[in-house]
Amino acid sequence: MKHITVNGLRLEYRDYPATAEGRPSLLLLHEGLGCVSMWRHFPEKLAAATGCRLIVWSRAGYGGSQPWPEARTPRYMHREAEEALPALLYALHIERPILIGHSDGGSIALIFAGAFPEVPRGVAVLAPHEFVEEETLAGIRAAREVWATTDMPHKLGRYHADVQRVFSDWNDTWLSPAFRDWNIEEYLPKIRCPVLALQGEDDEYATMRQIEAIAEQVPGTELLKLAQCGHSPHKDQEAAVLAALVAFVERASGSCR
Predict the structure, then answer these.
(1) Distances (CA, A) of 170 to 62, 124, 136, 148
(2) What mean pLDDT is predicted for residues 224-250?
């Protein structure tokens, strides 16, 4: 594991080098309870399949990354997209990446693409959120019950230095009254790069309206709805997701190997 200081915070990351010339850099953005290690072997498989340099990192407070000193607000994903991600790209000398985000990471990627439309070559999102649905809140309430009644804290604690804060920041923020009106749809019409949006038909945290809303507001968006798949498409349907992402990277980069 490598480390880099961004906005005064020490973040952990892994850097898979390109194996082919002229390939874009890929950045993987993890979910609301994720980190570098929780991607497991997916990053190395995607890097090998595309030939691209691939960066995966733990956002502030996740995994072994140093947390923000301030308490989380309902705009925490905006902060990651508009402050932290540009600073990370600068520190890593990456100019025009393809962003691949899961859940919260997908939302962050969409905000970034709308705020800085000239930067990304493409954005692929797996089970992203653009607004709050009752189905989402129900899933998060269920997760709170699992947290309180099972060994979930122990299992998740293997991946995070401060697992209680990781869970509380995510769960408490999403269930707070202040978050009910959270919505990032204003960013969607500003996106200029190719977009791929994937979601499982059995997603326990959202309905298909989440990715359909992207297609309605970003012309040319490609949708992929996966059967027998929940909120983690890259785990539940790994082969299908890898194939879709490889094809998308070719489309977004404008070149073929």
Answers:
(1) 11, 22, 12, 15
(2) 97
Mean pLDDT of 141-154: 97
- State what percent of residues in the chain have pLDDT above 70: 99
Q: Tokens representing 48? A: 């090998």
Fold of 2-131+183-252: Rossmann fold (3.40.50)
Alpha carbons 253 and 250: distance in angstroms, whole number? 5
Confidence tier at 254 by pLDDT (50, 70, 90)? confident
SS3 at position 27: strand
**By three-state DSSP, how is residue 175 classified?**
helix
Query: pLDDT tens digits, residue range 110-125?
Result: 999 999 999 999 999 9
Query: CA 192 to CA 220: how far, in whole Å?
Result: 10
Amino acid symbol at 256:
C
Sheet of strand 98-102: strand arrangement: 2-6, 9-16, 54-57, 26-29, 98-102, 122-126, 195-200, 222-226
DSSP string, 98-162: EEEEETHHHHHHHHHHHHSTTS-SEEEEES--SB--HHHHHHHHHHHHHHHHSSHHHHHHTT-TT
Do residues 129 and 183 touch, judged by C-beta distance below 8 A? no
Give Cα 1 to chain centroid, integer Å.
19
DSSP 196: E
